[in-house]
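Quarterly update, task 2.4: adenosine-5'-triphosphate-bound model.
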Amino acid sequence: MPAKSLEQVRNLCMRRGFVFPGSAAYGGVASFWDYGPLGVELLNNVKKAWWQDAVYARDDMDGLDAAVLMSRKVWQHSGHEATFSDPMVDCKKCRSRFRADDLVGAWVSSVRDEDMLTSETWSKHFKAHERVCQAMPEPARSQGVAVMREILAAHEAWWPLGKLFLKFDASGDESAKREMVADSDTVKANQRLKAATDAHHKFITENAVAFTAASFTACEVTCPKCGSNEFTEPRQFNLMFQSHVGPVSAAAGTDEEAAARVYLRPETAQGIFMNFAHVQRSLARKVPFGIAQIGKAFRNEITPGNFIFRTREFEQMEIEFFIKPPQFVAEGEKNDEQWHEEWVQQRYRWWLRYATPPSAGNEDMERIAARFRKRAQAADELAHYAKATTDIEYLFPGALGWGEIEGVANRTDFDLSAHSKDVPEEDLKRLKLEANKDSNEKFDYFDPDAKARYIPWVIEPSAGATRAVLTFLCEAYHEELVKEPTKQEIDQIKSDAAMIRKNAEKKIKDARKDIEAGKEPKHQPDKVEAFLNQLDDVVSRLPASLDEVLLALDHEGAQNLEPVKKFRPPTEKFIEECTRTVLRLHPALAPIKLAVFPLKKNKPEIVELAKSIKQKFQKHFRTVYDDSAGIGRLYRRQDEIGTPFCITVDFESLEDGTVTVRERDSMAQERVAIDELHDYLLPRLEL
Ligand code: ATP
């Protein structure tokens, strides 16, 4: 099993030096992370694997590294200055800040609850939505009212069938249910209800900013942090960080300030568009060809979080692949849809390749593949300039669930046209663009085969490098049982847990009394209760859940509970003996490729030989020497950070020139001659 929670991965990252909170000495800055000694190796390896696949392995790709800061005009003509924003609201009680569309989305999805479908609350709920729409400005008002009326009508038409479904469910009459599902009236009613709920979801999300604070209150949209439903009015918040070139003393919004304003790029793509003509001309590239770039991007996200999944500073790995517009595609050449499909497949294969360690058998491979999916965006999700977009998603552990790791978009000729002067009127109209009077470049291309000049179309595979680090860590993280605990040992954990429960229940009671008396409680009763529920769940699944016991004891509701403090150290020691944490990283991604240990650190000949092996390999890849613990413990430490191979030098090595090579996933050990180590390791590391 891969990681069961982001918390496991986050704990490992902090403990072993992958990722640290930024500016920690000053209390940290929300959502900025520093990559430590192992994190920077992993991140670099991810980028190297991407560059290898995107640039070196193809004949039609070149690399680029554009400046982070560009003319403000780039962001005006790309549309970012006007539209790269999210609607934001603040909770009036606890001051937490949220994306309005997230809050509204969570509220709306409550509609999908079974309860909602089967009760009269449906009608009450959507009549409330209609009242919310009545308070919106036009045209949202009329659109919204129409959407709400349709969802009410569609549900009314569907409800008799819904009742029958419930009846068959209750009686277990599967054949009647199957018959009904196949019936054409059922199909129609289902389709109508689905279309109505999709239209509703789209309308609500897109118009979140048209919600008034009063409508949040009326609809009982609640703050996820404190439960209040008093919010400020939603307002659009641009996600680009601003800065200025040179010293500026003028106030924000004045001409002087605006003239010096720059933005930290929110994506690397625009730097590629700016260099389309440079690269094409300097390398005499023929379309189709592409440009790859890796670099930092910055977004002032309203709700960053989930560790390094969504951060305000992150790294992207982007490709702009320039192709012929459909009207110039000759017989036998790929058109835009085929190129799009080719890139979706290439990128999907890359994710699977690096998520799969060489030790994976067929079943493992199937399980890994099931956690990656390609999801074509529905027509109503697409950005207005995209003809098609397929997101590659990964099933992250816990509440995060399926999350986008890469988007592959067919962006037509939108971007190059947006930055070009003299674009014909009909093209501007088709692309919904204003004429660009600032640009002195036309990003077109003379195609010697088609004997025509055109602005190329573009396919854009855009992946997050830092999000890839999280993806590969989640997938690689495994906690395994290496020694079966005895019944007695399991019973001991159960009786410790019972003791913890008894004490915690008393603390909950005391805390509630304190709250009633208006005093500051020593514990948060809800959090302690949540901890006890998690502990009960883990204990009920022992011994299979042994690897989750420490996670439960680290719950925020377990803080300051005396029995937890007392039981944690011996439990940790015992669990360490029975389980191992192993990062089954692809060897090409592993931060350290090889660790060399001496069996005895007080035997100078053994130490010297071990160090000489380390020196030999450190020229080729990251190799470390360690003699700070017994061999068993040293193996565990390397397993936990994903080192594919460990070498132990012992007395026999001095006699016959062989060493023990131990493989991380199988823990299998083999004697290999020192002279043959290079040939043994290199193919297995897949560098
Ligand atoms: P999301 O829907 O998650 O906000 P997006 O659709 O805005 O992502 P794109 O603009 O398509 O993302 O960016 C391409 C890739 O960059 C994403 O697939 C993701 O891997 C990465 N990415 C985007 N925003 C962030 C962020 N705030 N933190 C880390 N990675 C990010």
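Highlight for this quarter: Residues 85-238 form one domain.
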